C-alpha cells in the first residue's frame, strides 16, 4: 500500500505528496470528537493569560472537517461560539455567535492570517489538514526528538495564506506532525510549532496533548493544552448548524 | 394542588441537574457635555446594572432551561431604573428541529448602522441610544434545520411596550413620553397574537434571510394628549403592521456586502426602507497584527412624514480598529450624516478592552449636531455624552 514511498525514481515533489497523503490517510476515519482545552498565552516577559475552550469536531470525507469552538474563558466572551467548515480548496466558511447581541455573524475567512483570540495561532493554523491546501516537496530525512522523520516543505496554494512556506517534520513510524516552521510572506522564519505528549486513541489516532507555538519575531508564545478528548460521541451535522449556534453551551 | 404535586415530583430531576450560574454587572458613569435643555435634567449620571444568568440541561442535553435577568438602577431617571427578564425559556431539540417556549431574544439582520429587519424583540429604549438592547419577548418558536435552509415560525402572544426616558432623564423630547397610557390599534391591546416566519440559508459566500411579520408594531407613533393633571403628554400609539423583510450578506474578496430591506404596511399605507453598504478589511495593517475595517452604509426610508424616522436619507461612515491583542482591544468610531440637511449629523465612539479574566472597561461617546427642527435628532442637540463603564463578569 505504501510501497511507492520506497521507489527510488521518485521526484522530491512526488515523494512529498506521497508522505502527505499517508499522513492524511493515517488520520482518517476518526469520525467525531469532543474536547476540552486551555490556551496559555505568554508574552516575551513571561506574563501569561489562560483561555479555556471546548471543541467539537466532525470529520467530513472528501472535504474539510467541521469544528465548533465554545469559549469559557475569558469570562466576557463566555458563550461565544466559533463555527468553522474547513474546505480543501475554497475558503473556509466561518461564523461567530455573539451572545450579547444573540447574533450569528459571518466571518471573512480570508482573514486567515489574523490571530486566533489574540494568540500566536492564526485562524489558518486552526483549520484541518487537507492535501489540496499545499504543494509538497520532500527535503531530507532527519531525527527529531529521537524519532526518525521526514522533513517536507509545504507551500500554501491559497494566496491569502500568511505563509510563504512551512517546513514540517513527520515521524516515519506513525506519520505524526512533530514540528513545523512557518515562514512569513517575506520568507523569514515567523513561528515554530512543536507537538508533545502524543496519546493514542481508538488504537489508531495519535493526538498531541500539548502544542507549543513560539513566535520567533516577537518572542511571544502560545501553548495549547488538551485536558480531555472523547471519540464516538454521536455528533452529527445538526450539531454544526448556524441555526443551533445560539443554543450551544 | 395537582400542579403542586407534579411540581414536587418534577423538582428532584431539576435539583439533580447541574445549574450553571454566571452573568455580569457594571458601573457606568455618564457625563453630558452641555447644559440640559430642561430644568429637571442633570449633567452627570451614575448607573449600575446586574445581569445574572442560570442554565441547566437535562434529558441527555436534548432539553435545557435558560434564565437571563436584568436589573438597572439609575441615579437620575426613575424610568431608567428598571428590571426585565431578558430570557427565560425551555429549549427542546430533536433531530433537525427545535422548539423554544418562554421569554426569548431573537436577532435578525446583517447591517451595522441600523437594524430594520430585526422585529421580534422590543427595544429597551432607556438602555442605549443605538437601540441594540432589547426586552424579553414571550414566544413559542418552532425551527426546522434542513439542507435547504433554516426555517422558524414564531407565535408571539404578548406585546412589550418600548421603554423611554422619564422627566428626569436626558435623551428625550420636551414632553416625556407617557408610557402608562399607550394606545393600541388592536382591540386585544398588548394581548394581540402576533406571528412571524423566517427562512435563512447560506449559499457559498452568500447568507440570505427572508422574513414576514404580522402583528403589533414595535415602533410607536406618538399622540399629543393630556394627562390626569391636564398637562400635555405624548402617548405612544402601537398600530398593527405587516412587514416583509430581506437581509443579505455576501463575501467578495476583501469586501463584505450587507443589505437589509423592508416593506411595511401600516394604517393602510405602504412604505419601503432599506440600508445597504459594505465593510472592507485591511488585515495586518502596516505589517502589524492590527486589523482595520472600513464601513459605509446608506440608509433610506421613503416615508414623507419625518417625525420619528431618523434614518431616512443618511450615510454612515465608520472604522473598526481591532488590535488582536490579549486584551481584545477594539475601537469602533463613526459618523452618520444626514444627506438632506448638511448640518445634521451624529458621531460615535465605542472602545473596550479587557483588564483581566473578570474585568473589562468600555468607553462610549455620542456627539449630536442638529440645528434642524424638522429632524428628530433635533431633540438630542444638547445631549452629547461620554460614558465610562467598568464591567465585571462572573
UniProtKB/TrEMBL annotation, chain A:
SUPFAM superfamilies recorded: Prokaryotic lipoproteins and lipoprotein localization factors
Boundaries of every Uncharacterized protein TP-0789 domain copy: 65-246
Biological-process GO terms, alphabetical: protein transport
Source organism, top-level taxon: Bacteria
Keywords associated with the record: Lipoprotein, Protein transport, Signal, Transport
Signal sequence residues: none
Listed PANTHER family: SPORULATION PROTEIN YDCC
Full protein name: Outer membrane lipoprotein-sorting protein
Automatic annotation (TrEMBL), chain B:
Sorted UniProt keywords: Signal
Signal peptide: 1-17
Name of the featured protein: Phosphate-selective porin O and P
Natural source organism: Paraglaciecola psychrophila 170
Amino acid at each position: 500500500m505504501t510501497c511507492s514511498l520506497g521507489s527510488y525514481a521518485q521526484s522530491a515533489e512526488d515523494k512529498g505528496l506521497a508522505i502527505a497523503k499517508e499522513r492524511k490517510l493515517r488520520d482518517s476515519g476518526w469520525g467525531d470528537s469532543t474536547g476540552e482545552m486551555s490556551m496559555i498565552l505568554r508574552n516575551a516577559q513571561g506574563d501569561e493569560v489562560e483561555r479555556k475552550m471546548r471543541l467539537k469536531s466532525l470529520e467530513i470525507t472528501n472535504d474539510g472537517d467541521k469544528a465548533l469552538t465554545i469559549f469559557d474563558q475569558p469570562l466576557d466572551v463566555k458563550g461565544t461560539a466559533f463555527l468553522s467548515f474547513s474546505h480543501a480548496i475554497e475558503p473556509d466558511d466561518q461564523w461567530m455567535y455573539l451572545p450579547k447581541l444573540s447574533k450569528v455573524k459571518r466571518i471573512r475567512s480570508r482573514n486567515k492570517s489574523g490571530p486566533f483570540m489574540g494568540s500566536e495561532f492564526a485562524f489558518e493554523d486552526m483549520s484541518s489538514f487537507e492535501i489540496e491546501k499545499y504543494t509538497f516537496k520532500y527535503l531530507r530525512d532527519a531525527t527529531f526528538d529521537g524519532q526518525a522523520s521526514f522533513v517536507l516543505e509545504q507551500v500554501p496554494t491559497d494566496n491569502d495564506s500568511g505563509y510563504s512556506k512551512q517546513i514540517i517534520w513527520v515521524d516515519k513510524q506513525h506519520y505524526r506532525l512533530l514540528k513545523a516552521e512557518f515562514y512569513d510572506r517575506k520568507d523569514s522564519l515567523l513561528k515554530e510549532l512543536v507537538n508533545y505528549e502524543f496519546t493514542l486513541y481508538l488504537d489508531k489516532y495519535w493526538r498531541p496533548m500539548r502544542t507549543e507555538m513560539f513566535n520567533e519575531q516577537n518572542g511571544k508564545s502560545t501553548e495549547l493544552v488538551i485536558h480531555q478528548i472523547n471519540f464516538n460521541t454521536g455528533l452529527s451535522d445538526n450539531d454544526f448548524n448556524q441555526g443551533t449556534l445560539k443554543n450551544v453551551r | 394542588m395537582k400542579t403542586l404535586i407534579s411540581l414536587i415530583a418534577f423538582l428532584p430531576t431539576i435539583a439533580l441537574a447541574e445549574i450553571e450560574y454566571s452573568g455580569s454587572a457594571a458601573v457606568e458613569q455618564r457625563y453630558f457635555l452641555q447644559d440640559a435643555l430642561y430644568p429637571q435634567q442633570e449633567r452627570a449620571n451614575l448607573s449600575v446594572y446586574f445581569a445574572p444568568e442560570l442554565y441547566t440541561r437535562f434529558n441527555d442535553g436534548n432539553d435545557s432551561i435558560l434564565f437571563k435577568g436584568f436589573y438597572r438602577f439609575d441615579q437620575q431617571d426613575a424610568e431608567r431604573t428598571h428590571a426585565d427578564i431578558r430570557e427565560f425559556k425551555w429549549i427542546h431539540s430533536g433531530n433537525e428541529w427545535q422548539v423554544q417556549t418562554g421569554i426569548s431574544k431573537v436577532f435578525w439582520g446583517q447591517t451595522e448602522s441600523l437594524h430594520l429587519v430585526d422585529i421580534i424583540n422590543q427595544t429597551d429604549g432607556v438602555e442605549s441610544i443605538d437601540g441594540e438592547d432589547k426586552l424579553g419577548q414571550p414566544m413559542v418558536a418552532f425551527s426546522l434545520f434542513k439542507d435547504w435552509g433554516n426555517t422558524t415560525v414564531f407565535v408571539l402572544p404578548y406585546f412589550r411596550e418600548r421603554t423611554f426616558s422619564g422627566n428626569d432623564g436626558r435623551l428625550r423630547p420636551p414632553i416625556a413620553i407617557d408610557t402608562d397610557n399607550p394606545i393600541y390599534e388592536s382591540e386585544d391591546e398588548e394581548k394581540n397574537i402576533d406571528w412571524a416566519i423566517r427562512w435563512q440559508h447560506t449559499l457559498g459566500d452568500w447568507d440570505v434571510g427572508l422574513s414576514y411579520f404580522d402583528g403589533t408594531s414595535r415602533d410607536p407613533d406618538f399622540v399629543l394628549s393630556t394627562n390626569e393633571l391636564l398637562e400635555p403628554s405624548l402617548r405612544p400609539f402601537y398600530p398593527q403592521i405587516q412587514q416583509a423583510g430581506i437581509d443579505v450578506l455576501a463575501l467578495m474578496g476583501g469586501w463584505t456586502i450587507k443589505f437589509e430591506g423592508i416593506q411595511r404596511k401600516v394604517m393602510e399605507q405602504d412604505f419601503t426602507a432599506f440600508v445597504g453598504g459594505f465593510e472592507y478589511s485591511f488585515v495586518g495593517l502596516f505589517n502589524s497584527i492590527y486589523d482595520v475595517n472600513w464601513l459605509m452604509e446608506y440608509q433610506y426610508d421613503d416615508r414623507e412624514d419625518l417625525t420619528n424616522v431618523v434614518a431616512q436619507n443618511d450615510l454612515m461612515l465608520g472604522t473598526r480598529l481591532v488590535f488582536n491583542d490579549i486584551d481584545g482591544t477594539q475601537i469602533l468610531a463613526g459618523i452618520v450624516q444626514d444627506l438632506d440637511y448638511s448640518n445634521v449629523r451624529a458621531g460615535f465612539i465605542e472602545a473596550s478592552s479587557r483588564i483581566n479574566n473578570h474585568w473589562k472597561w468600555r468607553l462610549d461617546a455620542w456627539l449630536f449636531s442638529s440645528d434642524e427642527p424638522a429632524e428628530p435628532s433635533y431633540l438630542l442637540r444638547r445631549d452629547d455624552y461620554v460614558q465610562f463603564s467598568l464591567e465585571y463578569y462572573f
